């Protein structure tokens, strides 16, 4: 049996590869998406004070840091049973919008767009961010300006543009003044125009690559995401799960996720495979993120994004094709810019009441003598999909156990299936072109996976496998840690 290996998968966050196994006739017998990195944040949190978690968890990733910061703060709100004041929740939502503007623009323009602008079969040396800058410098400048708006929002609201610090149990540690509000409002309004220009560049690309949209990564799954009254939103709401025809099968509060979601380990990946418990594995595969959110909601409640959503639904309906994640991402990018303007035009964003105090915790000594357990679950929509932080603490608020369900993990089974089905349809024989290999990578890129976020175990069911090679690259030993 011959194996084709694509390593590494490029233009994603983290380290992964694709392997394709061919039978003696040159047809695909199996294929998998392998995630090889591993990080230990679930274990790192054990023994930490819960109020430290919003400062620890942003270090999981330099791209998704704001999402982890905010969902961690929401989990600690629940641990201490406090509800942040209105201004604090508006500030947190605004900070999360900054994350979306930064992340969505980075992914579409610099990670996903090279395949569409230069073409899937183009020279890999040109098919990247440098190729975008060389071939379309105006587009590259527009992308950089858009991303900068997101970073400025995070910097002013979150205290730092990377690894923000202001979301704390019970609210925010600081607010924003009129000068900061006015600066961000001007930039957010400019961002709406920048996104409009980007959409006009992108729309013809989705027409041009209609065949690729139909053929790459074909899977049909359930979808999950937060919604409030059927509207698109990222900070709050109930988790809604629909089947592949769009019928609702679950709706639940984030704290109840363990009744509906289970995780499975597979031998080819360090990333776990969440699935719907009542459906079972693998039939219970479900997806999250931009494509899922636009399938779940009934309305995108801003003017320009709402119009784009209407066009999208008229054309694609209940969308299943992974490459449409790119289109959905642009619609969400427009929504985030418009929603940022709405929040910044509301004078409540500058309010002084930004934190509810935390009272009633035990002392550390009392907690050692007590069996009391506190639990807090936070859930938000991160750019890549639903993100859950679940902390159990003692009576003094020291974390005893942490569980993180990350968006990329929830898409893991669909990515794996999409690679396998596309490989079976397109590969016949040992000679595989660079363009065809890139098409398999395009499936993974469409999901915008963040592997640093999604691989967080350092013990348990997933052993560390170490391959030892000699100086000539020959495998001499496999070692299990």
Automatic annotation (TrEMBL):
Q: Where does Fe cation bind?
A: 64, 453
Where Mg(2+) is bound, by residue? 42, 404, 456
Q: Which top EC class applies here? A: oxidoreductase
Output the Gene3D superfamilies linked to this UniProt entry.
Cytochrome-c3 Hydrogenase, chain B (1.10.645.10)
Keyword Iron appears in the UniProt entry: yes
Q: Which residues of the sequence carry a binding annotation for Ni(2+)?
A: 61, 64, 450
Fetch the InterPro entries from UniProt: Ni-dep_hyd_lsu, Ni-dep_hyd_lsu_Ni_BS, NiFe-Hase_large
Q: Name one GO molecular function term.
A: nickel cation binding
Say if the entry is tagged with keyword Iron.
yes
Q: Which cofactor does it need?
A: Fe cation; Ni(2+)
- The membrane-spanning stretches of this chain are none
Q: Which Pfam families does the protein's record reference?
A: NiFeSe_Hases
Keywords attached to this Swiss-Prot or TrEMBL record, sorted alphabetically, are: Iron, Magnesium, Metal-binding, Nickel, Oxidoreductase
Q: Under which EC number(s) is this enzyme classified?
A: 1.12.99.-
Query: Which family is it part of?
Result: Belongs to the [NiFe]/[NiFeSe] hydrogenase large subunit family.
Protein name (Swiss-Prot/TrEMBL)? F420-non-reducing hydrogenase vhc subunit A
Protein species of origin: Methanobacterium congolense
Q: Which gene encodes it?
A: vhcA
